[in-house]
Specification:
- Helix content is 76%, strand content 0%.
- By secondary structure, the protein is mainly alpha-helical.
- The protein has a domain of 177 residues: MetI-like fold.
- Helix 7 packs antiparallel against helix 10, helix 8 crosses helix 9 and helix 10 crosses helix 11.
- The longest helix has 36 residues.
- It is elongated.
- InterPro entries: BPD_transp_1_N (IPR045621), MetI-like (IPR000515), MetI-like_sf (IPR035906).
- It is found in: Cell membrane.
Length: 289
């Protein structure tokens, strides 16, 4: 952002501002210092729990991020729930019935879903359910405090736009993991004792198949944070993504750095939770520990 044309002082004062005023404001912001000095100053603030102050609004960056991330987390968590609820049964069924027409059809549907960008699906859902059928609003935001009905009605389309695309990807991994487990000797033994493929998998193979799926689920949760940036723009939702895009256009570097740092921290936490999930799922890891 530092090498792009424009800077916070020019954005705040306008392109027709007096050069002397622009230079004075740059000095107040500290953007006339070397980039290394600016960065070290910002890192020093992080060590004391401060993300700095926005150049344009003169408001603390931390509270702005905290207010917006609540909106984004609602979208991400609900989209992840949709992805899991759709992908797990779809992937297991596609694996169990892989040699039949309906299993091949499910695999084809998931492959098609992976090829559709989330913002394209969002536009299609808006056209169908908001413009043509008038079932739900086409955009905006209603907080959960307004009641579960209005809240779920408002977030239905953005959550489906995020969740269905991730469900298509996740179902492919669920199918692959399930097929690998179904080929194991202990599953063949369970089948030989009279269990159906589905019951043998649920009773003896579900945990083994869950480990690679949990890995992908952690990656998808991180991807949902990034996808939410675009979806929030499509549905005019005042979340972290909208704040990031506005900050980029305004060259508000401190706000952009703060948002990116929060996203990085979220990805690190997600990876740690995935590691804990491995131990919870696989008893062999607990015994080795």
């Amino acid at each position: 952002m530092a090498v792009l044309p424009g800077d916070p002082a020019t954005v705040k004062l306008g392109v027709n501002a007096n050069p002397a005023q622009v230079q004075e404001l740059r000095h107040q912001f500290g953007t006339d210092r070397p980039l290394v000095a600016q960065y070290l100053s910002w890192v020093g603030g992080l060590m004391h729990g401060s993300f700095g102050t926005s150049y344009l609004t003169n408001a603390a960056v931390g509270p702005q991020i905290a207010a917006k991330i609540q909106v984004t987390l609602w979208l991400v968590v609900l989209a992840l729930v949709v992805a899991v609820v759709v992908a797990v049964p779809m992937g297991v069924l596609a694996a169990v019935r892989s040699r039949r027409a309906d299993g091949a059809a499910l695999a084809g549907v998931s492959q098609l879903g992976m090829a559709v960008p989330s913002f394209i699906l969002a536009i299609l859902l808006i056209d169908l359910f908001a413009v043509r059928l008038h079932w739900v609003p086409s955009g905006g935001w209603v907080p959960p405090t307004a009641g579960p009905g209005p809240f779920l009605k408002q977030v239905a389309l953005p959550v489906l736009s995020l969740g269905l695309i991730q469900a298509a990807l996740l179902s492919r991994y669920v199918r692959s993991a399930t097929l690998d487990v179904l080929r194991e000797d202990h599953i063949r033994t369970a089948r030989a004792k009279g269990l159906s493929p589905g019951r043998a998998f649920l009773r003896h193979g579900l945990r083994n198949a869950a480990i690679p799926v949990v890995t992908v689920l952690g990656l998808q949760l991180a991807a949902l944070l990034i996808d939410a940036i675009v979806i929030e723009k499509v549905f005019v939702i005042p979340g972290l993504g909208s704040l990031l895009l506005t900050s980029v256009s305004n060259r508000d570097l401190l706000l952009v750095q703060g948002i990116v740092m929060v996203l990085v921290g979220a990805v690190l936490v997600i990876n740690y939770v995935v590691d804990l999930a491995y131990v919870a799922i696989d008893p062999r890891l607990r015994r080795s520990a």
